[in-house]
Amino acid sequence: MKNTSPLTTPLPQKVLQVSADLRFAGLVGFWMQLVLGVISTVTVLFASSSFIDQTNTANTAGNEFGVFCAVCGLIALGIGIYFSWRYLAIAKLLRNPEANRRPNKADTIRMIRLGLMVNLIGMLLTIIGAEAIVGLVLAKSLANPPGQLNLDPNKLVNSIDLLVIQANTHTIAAHFGGIVASLLLLNRITR
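RE: above sequence
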């Protein structure tokens, strides 16, 4: 006769499916956000090093707010990466045969919603930074009439401006990936 205690009953199919969904979304979200986050961080560090260089301050005037928002977006992205990693940990916990050691549905949904909010806030901050930089680049380019050579460094679009735009774009894409993963998880778990 088989001795089955209520604590070690076989895992329900729904729990296995939720665990698989959390694992998949956690892996995709983690690696996508990590790769884009590293690229963005290196780009922002390179761009912000030009602000420290006092010889190039005229060329980067006005970029400080955009870089500040990019850094805030990267900090939020770091937190979002943690939440993706947390999804992997929850998926592993759900496969625990002891029912009392598994996280409950409400806690799992709360964790996913918190990760979603972090990515939404990070995306908002990064979009604000991108808008600031794009507005600055547009103002610089409009200050140069077609056919005239303007040698004023404050009115020239430079590579640092474009690097900050690229870093913000990568960060926005990373946050978008985290948002999509969280929304898919909420959709799958709450069904």
